[in-house]
């Protein structure tokens, strides 16, 4: 809770400061610097009535601007180096004054030197200086370059300078109208009660300073010395309080150091103070006058020197800075002013006893020799120049025998024209006033200077412009410099039949051809041109193919694939509103776009519809667009009747031959080409042998049980001797084109002539059910079997060979059994 209460002052401070911090900044704010030259501040914070602090840091230089009537009901504190711009016709009132303590600085600027329009500032302190230090505080650095500034000190505080018990700090005035009034016992400009005046420098402007109570007009407060006062120009009127000097010390204070080298100075002391010098009972200090017009009048003190009962101090008058003589006139309250003997002075001793410290010489005037000017005229009252040009002005001061004919030249806006020693130089376009002011008596004469900025160049955004007949476009012109006085352009065409141009730069194409458009300025002779080429408008649309035939198909067809048509804009104008027609018997796709630029393309697709009946279909598809453009393409398609199926040809028949290799012959069989043939049904018979299987080669190296017939093929039988047939005895006879007989005795039969040892026969595989082949006739017992004629069915079952083989197997088995029982 304590922490919460501790935050309350901080929150209040933030709320009070926030409006000023968050104020919208102003950009490119103009102001006049100490030399009267126009400058621009890139950005400045707009002063608001809620401001309490104006601050400046290295990261964010503090620039502020007053743009309207603003009244701040409390004191504003300056921290850092702050700059304040008083905009023309703007006013700022700060009730509580502006705090500029030691170590901080405030610089005030105006936007013009015209007292009727320059911005104003009114600052009134309560217990502090109007502008400067607070209670018990020294004044900081206050610089005034312009504006109408009115500063009033609070109790015991200066108008501009120190607060109570605070010295004046550093005050510099170069222009504007300044009125400063001190509070009780304080200086108008300088120290507060009990403090010295600090450093006061006046180089120009109009300054009126009035001390309060016992303070000086310019210098120390009561009991404070005058500090350092330097005046080199301007119009200064300083009046001390009751016991203070006009310029110098306050009551009981010495005059300090006062140096006057120019300007018009009128210093009046209070009842017991000097005009320039000490306050009551204060010494005269050090006073040096080398120029200007100085009128010093004391109360009971000297015109220039000590205050009432104060010592003389040191006074030096002359020599003049320009070598001319000065005239010193002294007087008192009871006699007319009189010239002090010796009008040219190089040493102060010549007059010090006459004017310093003597109550009866309360008035002293120092001026140049001769009468004061009564008027001044210029050789021209109006002057017209182009930017960069110069012209002299001469001033004539009256009367001819005036003691000081010197004049000071000023410009109301040096950003338009500046002046030096009467020579006017044009800087920027606009109008300004050149003023010649006599250094004595302040007589003035003016000349109105009008500066024109000529156009230096014209640039068109296009130097060549293609247009179609009937079209329009506007050329854009850039005129340099930006601040040219007359930027009006005159537009012309070299041939209005081809292209015209109005005075805004709008070009309208009329007919094919070329024309030149020219933009020219009034007076400067600068031009710029653009070549316009006008072309007739054309419109066209073409298709990449004129016709597509999707070919012939049979009923029940698969829908043919879509074909793409490409359309090209062959004209020079963009086509819009493109549409494609539909078709009765074709599917037409959408266009890829409804707008196409010159040279660009769009596409669509088309394909026959599905399920059309027998017939020929042909349609024209049309694409249309703006300006009556059209492109066509023909699509066609035929559905033909289905053809009568052709009979399926039987594959060719292939013969299969069996070489029984000495066995009973087997007839050839035939099969369709590529048919697979199982071989187990085809088993040959050979007496005394067992069948071992079929082989592809006669050498019996490639056994085979199934074959696919591709070409005419011969298979070879393999045999193994039957052991049962070779035991026991018997006899037999046979013929095969011959006759013979034989007998055998003993235990074994005579082996057949082909009794070659063979491997143990393998069992004949069990056949799978197949149609039984038709048996062939039993052939004669010949070694080379004669092929049987091909059967109609393509294959036959060999019944006789199988039966014979079975009988042989049974006989062989019986013989084996008999052999073993016998043995």
Helix content: under 10%
In DSSP terms, counting alpha (H) and pi (I) runs of 4 or more, how many helices?
3
Counting helices, strands and paired strands, the structural category is: mainly beta
Mean pLDDT across every amino acid position = 82
* Major sheet strand order: 1-2-4-7-10-13-16-19-22-25-28-31
Major sheet summary line: 12 strands, mixed
Number of strands: 67
Proportion of residues in β-strands: 35-45%
Using the alpha-carbon principal axes, give the shape.
elongated
Radius of gyration: 67 Å
Determine the N-to-C terminus distance: 135 Å
Q: Regions with pLDDT < 50 over 5+ consecutive residues?
A: 1-23, 333-360, 728-804
What keyword list fits this structure?
823 residues, mainly beta, twelve-stranded mixed beta sheet, 3 helices, 67 strands
Q: Outline of this structure?
A:
This protein has 823 residues and is mainly beta. The strands form 13 sheets. The protein has a twelve-stranded mixed beta sheet with strand order 1-2-4-7-10-13-16-19-22-25-28-31, with no helix packed on it. The protein has a twelve-stranded mixed beta sheet with strand order 5-8-11-14-17-20-23-26-29-34-32-33, with no helix packed on it.
Characterize the structure shown.
The chain is mainly beta. The protein has three helices and 67 strands. It has a twelve-stranded mixed beta sheet with strand order 1-2-4-7-10-13-16-19-22-25-28-31, with no helix packed on it. A twelve-stranded mixed beta sheet has the order 5-8-11-14-17-20-23-26-29-34-32-33, with no helix packed on it. The longest helix is centred in the last third of the chain and has 24 residues, at 799-822. The chain is elongated and about 185 Å long. The relative contact order is 0.04.
């Amino acid at each position: 809770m304590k922490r919460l209460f501790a935050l309350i002052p901080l929150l209040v401070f933030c709320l009070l400061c926030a409006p000023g911090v968050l104020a919208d900044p102003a950009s490119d704010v103009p102001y006049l610097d100490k030399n009267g030259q126009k400058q621009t501040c890139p950005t400045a914070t707009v002063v608001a009535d809620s401001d309490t602090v104006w601050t400046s840091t290295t990261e964010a230089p503090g620039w502020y601007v007053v743009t309207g009537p603003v009244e701040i009901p409390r004191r504003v504190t300056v921290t850092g180096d702050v700059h304040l711009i008083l905009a023309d016709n703007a006013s700022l009132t700060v009730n509580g004054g502006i705090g500029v303590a030691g170590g901080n600085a405030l610089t005030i600027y105006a936007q013009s030197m015209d007292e009727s329009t320059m911005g104003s500032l009114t600052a009134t302190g309560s217990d502090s200086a109007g502008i400067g230090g607070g209670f018990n505080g020294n004044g900081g650095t206050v610089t005034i370059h312009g504006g109408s500034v009115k500063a009033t000190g609070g109790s015991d505080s200066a108008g501009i300078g120190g607060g109570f018990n605070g010295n004046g700090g550093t005050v510099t005035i170069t222009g504007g109208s300044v009125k400063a009034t001190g509070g009780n016992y304080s200086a108008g400009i300088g120290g507060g009660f009990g403090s010295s005046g600090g450093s006061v420098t006046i180089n120009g402007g109009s300054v009126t300073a009035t001390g309060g109570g016992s303070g000086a007009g310019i210098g120390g407060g009561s009991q404070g010395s005058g500090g350092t006062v330097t005046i080199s120009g301007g119009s200064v009127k300083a009046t001390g309080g009751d016991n203070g000097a006009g310029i110098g010390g306050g009551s009981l204070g010495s005059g300090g150091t006062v140096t006057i080298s120019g300007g018009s100075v009128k210093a009046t002391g209070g009842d017991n103070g000097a005009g320039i010098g000490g306050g009551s009972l204060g010494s005269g200090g050090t006073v040096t006058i080398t120029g200007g017009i100085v009128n010093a009048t004391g109360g009971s003190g000297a015109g220039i020197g000590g205050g009432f009962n104060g010592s003389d101090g040191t006074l030096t008058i002359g020599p003049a800075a320009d070598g001319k003589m000065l005239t010193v006139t002294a007087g008192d309250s009871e006699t007319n002013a009189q010239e002090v003997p010796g009008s040219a002075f190089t040493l102060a001793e010549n007059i010090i006893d006459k004017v310093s410290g003597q109550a009866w010489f309360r008035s002293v005037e120092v001026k140049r020799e001769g009468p004061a000017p009564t008027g001044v005229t210029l050789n021209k009252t109006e002057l017209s120049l182009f930017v960069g040009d110069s012209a002299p002005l001469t001033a004539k001061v009256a009367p001819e025998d005036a003691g000081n004919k010197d004049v000071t030249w000023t410009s109301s806006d040096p950003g338009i024209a500046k002046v030096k020693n009467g020579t006017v130089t044009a800087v920027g376009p606009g109008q300004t006033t050149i003023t010649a002011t006599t250094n004595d008596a302040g007589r003035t004469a003016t000349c109105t200077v009008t500066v024109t900025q000529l156009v230096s160049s014209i640039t068109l955004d296009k130097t060549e412009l293609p247009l179609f007949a009937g079209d329009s476009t506007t050329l854009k012109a850039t005129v340099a410099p930006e601040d040219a006085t007359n930027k009006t352009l005159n537009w012309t065409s070299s041939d209005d039949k081809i292209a015209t141009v109005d005075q805004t730069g709008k070009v309208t194409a009329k007919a094919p051809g070329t024309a030149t458009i020219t933009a020219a300025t009034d007076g400067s002779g600068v031009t710029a041109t653009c070549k316009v080429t006008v072309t007739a408008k054309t419109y066209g649309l073409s298709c990449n193919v004129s016709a597509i035939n999707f070919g012939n198909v049979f009923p029940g067809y698969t829908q043919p694939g879509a074909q793409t048509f490409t359309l090209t804009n062959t004209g020079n104008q963009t086509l819009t509103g493109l549409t494609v027609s539909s078709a009765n018997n074709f599917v037409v796709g959408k266009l890829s776009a409804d707008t196409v630029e010159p040279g660009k393309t769009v596409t669509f697709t088309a394909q026959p519809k599905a399920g059309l009946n027998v017939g020929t279909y042909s349609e024209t598809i049309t694409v249309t667009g703006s300006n009556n453009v059209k492109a066509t393409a023909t699509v066609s398609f035929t559905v033909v009747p289905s053809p009568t199926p052709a009979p399926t040809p039987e594959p060719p028949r292939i013969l299969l031959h069996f070489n029984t290799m000495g066995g009973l012959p087997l007839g050839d069989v035939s099969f369709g080409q590529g048919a697979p043939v199982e071989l187990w049904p085809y088993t040959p018979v050979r007496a005394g042998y067992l069948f071992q299987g079929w082989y592809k080669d006669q050498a019996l190296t490639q056994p085979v049980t199934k074959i696919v017939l591709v070409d005419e093929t011969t298979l070879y039988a393999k045999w193994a001797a039957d052991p049962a047939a070779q035991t026991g005895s018997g006899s037999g006879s046979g013929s095969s084109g011959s006759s013979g007989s034989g007998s055998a005795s003993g235990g074994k039969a005579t082996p057949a002539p082909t009794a070659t040892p063979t491997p143990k026969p393998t069992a004949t595989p069990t056949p799978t059910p197949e149609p039984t082949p038709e048996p062939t006739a039993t052939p004669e017992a010949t070694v080379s079997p004669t092929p049987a004629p091909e059967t109609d069915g393509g294959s036959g079952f060999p019944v006789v060979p199988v039966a014979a083989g079975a009988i042989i197997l049974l006989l062989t088995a019986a013989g084996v059994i008999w052999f073993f029982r016998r043995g």
